[in-house]
Write a structure and sequence with these properties.
Elements (H helix, E strand, L loop, with lengths): L8 E4 L5 H12 L3 E6 L2 H15 L4 E4 L5 H15 L4 E4 L14 H29 L2 E6 L12 H21 L4 E8 L5 H14 L3 H10 L9 H12 L10 E4 L8
Parallel strand pairs: 1-2, 1-4, 2-3, 4-5, 5-6, 6-7
Helix pairs in contact: 1-8, 3-4, 4-5, 6-7
This protein binds nicotinamide-adenine-dinucleotide.
């Protein structure tokens, strides 16, 4: 399928590892101009070197802590200068810590809101005017199955990501007339560092191994396995493509059938 994004410029946030990195690689393989950001310079250098070795293409990278407004502004300015605007914004972020309601204080809630919700608000606000001028744009938020079916012991994620889902739907109403689509991709259990760490933490509580925890999770998924990050990335790149020109305001789960609702 011809996706028509080979000349588009893309920023994928939180993309030195995991799902964000897989998304960046998928865009690179489609010939798009790609920028990535995350907090850690060494991880960014390693990732950009590995992408260069794999695809023969340079990605632009910026050190950016998504909980800091100034870092997001600096990143968007740097990408705008290099690429002359951002056509496709993928708002990914690190996941909030695991825990239940009484485990968290107000500052934990604020930190989850900063990282998951306000980072996307800030980045989106900075890219939208240019998209409106060009009358073309794609905004895709990486959320979670938790927006459709709360996940046990992930109360920060369950609560805060639904705000982003509401924002995306509202924005899709405002921006449709400028030919800008706004969607969410909700990953299910995906084999990344984040899932590994969650499994290790759950394994300690249950006095078992993280392999056992991951195997139990897989048993609860109709596809009977965890997702590979590339499977999430494929959906994101499709939503960013010319072929998805009439899809907006949606949350697309990529979860192997995990969500039980219709
Ligand atoms: P990961 O831990 O493998 O990678 C997270 C990336 O975010 C890394 O590049 C890290 O450097 C970056 N990051 C973390 N905090 C940051 C910050 N403050 N500023 C900038 N960059 C930051 O995670 P992942 O599994 O790829 O998950 C990506 C997102 O998808 C997370 O929000 C996660 O909660 C969500 N998600 C993951 C799964 C899963 O099973 N892996 C399922 C549903 C949702």
């Amino acid at each position: 399928m011809y996706l028509g994004i080979s000349r588009k410029s893309v920023l994928v946030t939180a993309a030195s590892k995991g799902i964000g990195r897989a998304i960046a690689e998928e865009f690179v393989s489609e010939g798009a101009k790609v920028a990535i950001c995350s907090r850690n310079k060494e991880h960014l250098l390693k990732t950009s070197d590995e992408i260069k070795n794999k695809f023969g293409v340079e990605v632009l990278w910026c050190v950016c802590d998504l909980s800091k407004r100034k870092d997001i502004e600096n990143t968007i300015n740097a990408v705008n200068n290099e690429f002359n605007g951002i056509d496709i914004l993928v708002n990914n972020c690190g996941g909030p810590p695991r825990g239940n309601f009484l485990d968290f204080e107000e500052e934990d809630w604020q930190s989850a809101i900063d990282q998951v919700f306000l980072s996307a608000v800030t980045a989106t606000k900075l890219v939208v005017p240019n998209m409106m001028e060009k009358e073309w744009g794609r905004i895709i938020n990486i959320t979670s199955i938790s927006v459709k079916q709360p996940v046990d012991s992930l109360i920060l994620s369950n609560a805060v990501r639904t705000g982003l889902t509401g924002l995306a739907k509202s924005l899709s109403n405002e921006l449709g007339k400028y030919n800008i689509t706004v969607n969410n991709v909700a990953p299910g259990y995906t084999l990344t560092n984040r899932l590994y760490e969650l499994a290790v933490s759950r394994a300690k509580e249950m006095n078992t191994s993280h392999e056992e925890v991951l195997s139990e999770i897989a048993k609860g998924i109709p596809m009977n396995r965890l997702a590979a990050p590339e499977e999430i990335a494929a959906t994101v790149v499709f939503l960013a493509s010319m072929k998805a020109s009439y899809i907006t305001g949606c949350t697309i789960p990529v979860d192997g059938g995990y969500i039980k609702g219709l």
